Amino acid sequence: MRYVLNDLLVDTQTRTVRRSNTVLKLPDLSFDVLAALAEACPKPVTVAELSRSVWRADYVSDETIAQRITLLRKALGDNSRDPTYIRTVRGLGYAIIGSVKRVEKETQLKSIAWLYQHKTNAAVTGLVAITLATGLFLSARNPVSESTSAPVAAHQKSEVTILVERASEQLGLHQSKETRRAITMLREALNQDPKNFDARLTLSFALSTQATKFGGSESEKREAEAIARALISEHANSSNAWSALAYSLGSQGRIDESLSAYQRSYQLNPRNAPAISSAAHTHLLRGNLHQALSLEAKAKKVGGTSRYAEIQIAQVLELIDHPSATNWYKKALSLNPSQIVILSEIARSHLRHGNPHAALEILAQAEGDDQNAPQILQLRARAAIVLGNIVEARTLLEAAGGYGYFDITALNAASGNLSPTEQLFLQEKLAEIESDSSADTRIHLAEVIAALGQEDEALLRVAQAINLGWRDLNWLKQSPFLGILMSSRKGRQLESRIVRELEAQRSLIESTEELTRMIGG
């Protein structure tokens, strides 16, 4: 079916939208929304109807659909305040403005287009078509997909291809429900085509994202790794398959293995900026701050897209107490407003400087279901503990699931109310600690042990974390469980170790001309 909507020619067979001789590039999801609105015209389409017909889901949040309408309007050059094509029907849904002409024959199509062009030529002069790039889920820790097949015209796309593209768009929203929905779509795509490279690659990324950002399970982390390794066995020179493996390993705390995989990824594709920036993140976790910034500079030089580059640069600069850190935090937030990783890191910055109220204000910017994302709840609880709101903190930590387990265990230990299950958990963690390469884990464990009153043992875990690259001195000093210990004689010795290393890293950074230019940029 073909529709004429004002100056637009919408062809559902070729899945194209034209304005005069210009083809407007719409992602499949945006095209399907436009087609659904055109088909229903003049009646409005409800949010529930769009959920079923476009997303193929029983429920899609109002926020998700509103974001898609915004993207569609931008692609069409529409203005939400004075719309030409799509109007919002308050309390119901969305509708096409005016009428839509359904056209069966090519001669009718040309005739209607000619009449509209001459009738409204003055009105439409100067309109610019804004196109949307559709790419696959770009981010520093979630690199782009790399298809093994040649591009196909929109009308030739298979259902599997469309499912993968829609799932990628859902992942690009970086929200909990949308990530879970993307996983469902990708599993459906693989039911139809179990060997599809793009579907498997994207599913590996999606599972790692679910695990790292939204409290996914250990089985999802292992599945993401297994998928990536299978892809590498089939396509050993796929840069993005190696990135998927690195991401899955990082989600499991296997930092050194993750770094090696990222290095292999950008060795295969020196222009894979997300992989380079992800490697920078692993160097940040290991305390190699100069190397982390050097890789961020390299990623920027190759001209790719890395969602978390700015926030990672800000973290490094804050650790070395550089005055430009604040500007980089602001830049990260302006580029990715409401994105939970960005909000979480800024909140952590406020907490490490003893500003729990500021941390709560920034966390309140999370939208929709992201307000209940595990890391958001955990950081809100940390702020509540600092403010003395222990009952509220417990409630938040229980809701945070695995993200809140160490903190709630520390609270119970401090109150002398450690359950047998928690005592067993602590014993198991102590037994596992030698094989765990994550500095974060040792700091969490140190807080629990400190809450039990075992000061020397707690400081031993802090020392182990420092050996593994922990450089966040202010987080230790502001910790409600470790702060007092850090002011002890042994604590001050550990502080001196961190300070000396940070001074050395700052000296390296400030003596590298390329980095000083980037920091000031």
- The CATH topology of the largest domain: Serine Threonine Protein Phosphatase 5, Tetratricopeptide repeat
Low-confidence stretches: 106-155
CATH class of the largest domain: Mainly Alpha
What is the strand arrangement across the widest sheet?
A: 4-3-2-1-8
- Tell me what the CATH architecture of the largest domain is: Alpha Horseshoe
Please give a structural write-up.
This protein is mainly alpha-helical. It folds into 3 domains: 2-124, Orthogonal Bundle (Arc Repressor Mutant, subunit A); 135-148 and 155-307, Alpha Horseshoe (Serine Threonine Protein Phosphatase 5, Tetratricopeptide repeat), CATH 1.25.40; 418-510. Helix content is 63%, strand content 5%. The chain contains 27 helices and 8 strands. It has helices spanning 28-40, 47-53, 62-76, 106-119, 121-124, 159-171, 176-192, 197-213, 218-234, 239-251, 255-268, 273-285, 289-302, 309-319, 325-335, 340-352, 356-363, 374-386, 390-400, 405-414, 420-432, 439-451, 455-467, 473-478, 483-486, 489-510, 513-520; strands spanning 2-5, 8-11, 16-19, 22-24, 45-46, 86-89, 93-96, 101-103. The strands form 2 sheets. The chain has a 5-stranded antiparallel beta sheet with strand order 4-3-2-1-8, sandwiched between helices. Strand 1 (2-5) and strand 2 form a beta hairpin. The radius of gyration is 26 Å and the shape is globular. The two termini are 51 Å apart. Residues 106-155 have low confidence and may be disordered.
